[in-house]
Structures are given as C-alpha cells and as structure tokens.
Amino acid sequence: MKGIILAGGSGTRLFPITIAVSKQLLPVYDKPMIYYPLSVLMLAGIKDILIITTPHDQVSFKKLLGDGTELGCNFQYAIQEQPTGLAEAFIIGEKFIDKEKVALVLGDNIFYGNGLVNLLRSKINIEGASIFAYPVKDPERYGVVEFDDNKKVKSIEEKPAKPKSKFAIPGLYFYDNKVVEYAKKVKPSDRGEKEISTINKMYMEAGNLEVGEMTRGMSWFDTGTVESLDDATEFIRVLQNRQSTMIGCIEEVAYLSKFIRKPDLKKLSKKYGKSNYGKYLKQLSDSII
Asked: Residue limits of the Nucleotidyl transferase domain (predicted)?
C-alpha cells in the first residue's frame, strides 16, 4: 500500500496565522503538524508517500522532509493548485498510486491511542474501502456517517446543516485501487469541491465500504481552527511530559517499523542539535541494546 498526505489548502480558518505559512507546517507543541499524519502512515508500515502541497509551500515541505531516504522511506511531491476537494488527491496522485492500494491522511489530522498500530496495519490489504467514525459535538463541520441499529451504514453526508448522527468521519481513509476510477467520476458539489464523501458513497453502494467506530481509548484532532490547534498542542504537551514518550516522532517510528537501524537513528539525533527533540532521539538510541 502507498500513502498520500494532503497538505494543501489555504487555512483560512486560521488567518492571520496561515497567511504566510502552510497550516501543516505550524507547530503542534514541539513538532511541525505534518509529522503527526506522516507518522500515522509510517505506523501502518507505509514507506512510499506522496505529499500534496500548494505551489508556494512545496519548497518548505521539501526542506523539512527531503526525499525520505534518511527515514528508509520514499517521499514524492505533487501540487494542488486550488483547494478543490479531497477526492482530487487521487487524480493528482494517479501515476504515483499506479496499481497499488492507497491510504489518504489529511495533513492537519492527529491520531493517537491504544490499538492504533494494529488498527492501521489491519487495513493494509483492504478490498474495497475502510473509513472510521468518531463521536463529536460539532458534526456539521465534517463528513458525517449514519448507522442503523446493527452498525450498518445508512448514509454519508458532507458537512450537513442538520447532521443525522454525531459521528464524524476522521481524515484517514484506506482504499483499494478502484479509488482512482471512482475519483474521476466525482463532480463538484454545491461547495465547488470534489467531495471524498462521494467516493465513500460509491463504495457503500457497491457493498465494499467498511466503517469502524473509533474506541474511547483513541483520540483524534482536526487542527483546522485556532481552538482545536490549541487543544491538540495541550494534549501532546501533557501526554509527553507525563509519559516521557513522544507522539509523532518520525525517526522513532521509522526505527520501530524497521525502516532504519540503530546507527541511522543515532545519526539522525544529531540533526536536531541541542533541542529536546534531539535529546530524546539520542536517549532513545543510547537505550537500544
């Protein structure tokens, strides 16, 4: 399976913070925001990753992440000229995806929790599509999934004015190779965007859509507003300081996923100098037998 991170958009809900810098490059506590969704794909065992950015932000992403070699990965880059919908990611990434299955994660989404790795890796060989459901107080901000009493999907709506349920669909999706074909059939919605909900409906109508409810032990943040960005930062800060472990540390994930070895990890720790991030990697590499 290959992976795509959609890190485009203008981030208007965060203005003026994002006028001069991409939302996905903003700090969430001690790391750039994109480290978190990137680590999710890597935790799933995905090494080939396409990062889709705006034209003017791509240089900054390349400077931050490079080509992925030092992490044992292969990073490629593509441009989304305008924020015309999530479904467009599969059209932009068609050549990259080729004949493989693909996971899409949004560049401003953060996931954490017990069982996350097993959940992610269970989707690698998906036949059809797999999405998730997470209960929220403001479902009108998201794609919303409605279940029946047997947890079968009844409907999927994109940012409905009157949501039929409290279950939002987080920005993490797993698809087989048919997703490219489906994406090409998507027409712009009333909002002028090619909605990913339309793709999910196509899979649903074909009887090939899995929807899993995220458990209470898992946390999800969509950091698209100042309030949610602040919440995510506080969550990461408290958890890391209490547990002395890092969330979204891509070098650590690369080592645990066996993409790199101990000498590589030790070398990477020097990249960050005397920062706490660098100290954490050095302590980690020193503790490995």
From this structure: 2-236
